[in-house]
């Protein structure tokens, strides 16, 4: 058989093996009922929130004639303390909350992966320097550190919150990627790449990093839930985004009043359910991805 024929045969075998592995992983994921349920809930809630925003639901116009109205009579989730439709606010607020979770999770994972790759591959003083930076951030509980930074910036806004979450949320991915790189950089294929004079950037990001992508994807997915909960916690205590931005946490902020908690249960129940369902779905989905993608779980 000619060399060209052998090369084509090898490529076909590789494609067949990759296709077989993908089918096996999809089958394994589909057999995980909780993970599949989590994915369905995530898709349904995300589509509902986006559809509500695209449809232009009125979430911000007070109506004094229907203050604190219970669910029903044209308001499926009832109205809040100044007569705004709660369903519209939950749908529109979901766009903000989900965006915050996804944006911060992805960007912090990118930063953590880059720093982890550099620290793990080069080692020595470079590793020690980046480790010291991460230890400074880890010296405080993350929520306390976020609260301190929010207070220091002395301005509530979506941009500030995104910035603070990203610069305080990269350590988990950093540690994971660093440990993987320290283990993989001694592998034979890395030594071969170095012997052939391949650049360090190519070795790090084209040869080693693809072998670490599975745990990064899982970590990024589960971090979405973490950042949504952090935003809700900060907004509930008045340190999150501005009150005019209807995130799920800001909607819950109205439930700090004892009268609202006891007499207007729908004002805190529906945004609380939205947060709980979405976070639970993310965790189920993340666990399913871990079972499929992480070789240590297989």
Question: Can you walk through the features of this model?
Answer:
This protein has 298 residues and is mostly helical. The chain has 13 helices and no strands. The longest helix has 37 residues, at 86-122. The relative contact order is 0.14. The model has no long low-confidence stretch (mean pLDDT 84).
CA radius of gyration = 24 Å
Span of the ends, CA to CA: 38 Å
Low-confidence stretches: none
Instruction: Provide a count of the helices.
Output: 13
Q: In one word, what is the shape?
A: globular
For the secondary structure, the number of strands is: 0
Residue share in helix: over 70%
What share of the residues does DSSP label as strand, in percent? under 5%
Task: Give the integer mean of the pLDDT values.
Answer: 84
Reading the helices and strands in chain order gives HHHHHHHHHHHHH
Structural class designation: mainly alpha
Main pleated sheet: none
What's the structural blueprint in terms of helices and strands?
Elements: H1 3-31, H2 33-54, H3 86-122, H4 124-138, H5 142-153, H6 158-168, H7 171-184, H8 188-195, H9 200-208, H10 213-236, H11 248-252, H12 258-263, H13 265-293
Helix pairs in contact: 1-13, 2-3, 2-13, 3-4, 3-6, 3-7, 3-10, 3-13, 5-6, 7-10, 8-9, 10-13
Tell me briefly what this model is.
This protein is mainly α. It has helices at 3-31, 33-54, 86-122, 124-138, 142-153, 158-168, 171-184, 188-195, 200-208, 213-236, 248-252, 258-263, 265-293.
